[in-house]
Amino acid sequence: MGSPARELPIRLVDGPVKHDHADHAFESGGRTAVPPPPKARVFVEGQPISEQAIGQEMQHHPAIRPEESWRAAAEALVVQRLLQLETARLSIDGTRHAEPGESAEEAATRVLLEPVFDLVRPATSEACQHYFEQNREHFRAPDRVQLRHILYPAAPDDIEARLASRDRAEHDLAELKAHPERFAEYAMRFSACPSKEQGGELGWIERGQTTPEFERQVFRLKPGLAGLPVESRFGHHIVEVLALEKGALLDLDQVQSDIALRLDLAQRHSAMKQYVESLMARYSVEGLDAAL
Questions:
Q1: Which of 98, 205, 207, 264 could potentially form a cystine with 107 if both were Cys, beta carbons 3.0 to 4.6 Å apart?
Q2: What is the pLDDT of residue 53?
Q3: Nearest alpha-carbon partner for 75 in 271, 289, 282
């Protein structure tokens, strides 16, 4: 038997759609015309960057708030336009400089920016040591957690299955709180994870070894049986933390190459920022404030 029809979180309209007063501005002779595209809000040297282009670029700048994504996308396209104007002013022939697999525009931009990045000097050992000492607590081995779990499976897009998974996990969790010694038994009987053969034990887990949403929750737990089921893309889990281990502090020689790379990237970012500011002084930019 098929599953019963689900109520969709949208309203379907069977009859004719009522338009408000503004909609009639696009109606003519009983036919509805396509409304004009939104007006551009960003201009470089008087030339618009379309809202459509910004919308397409937004997929490369995810953010919690849409306006933050829009802002980042608009800034990226402004910088791209500024670089195009400058390569044209300097008559840089990207076709002549292109390397295999590189477009003419990419080659022109690379040639344009080479003098900018040539000013960046590799981080010294003294700079690395200073950064290490100022951020000592940040340089640790990964934290670890030892745990066991019981997985009640449900597909991410199956709402009914996920509700049933949660209810079953909550029911069994209540029983295990009264009889914690039966955890391995429950895991072998009910868990959909291969770890059920080991009584649900997953051993030691470091960040990055499982799914992010699962780790975000289990690394916040205290030793013992979690008070609520843990939800992940696979379903709901009853989790028991057996042990926690904070990562040991690392020595400078273990992280110096990473620090050097971080400092080099920071210098490149600063050099690029200053260069873009110089281009904004040469070319007009409207619609964004001066701080890119």
A1: 98
A2: 95
A3: 289
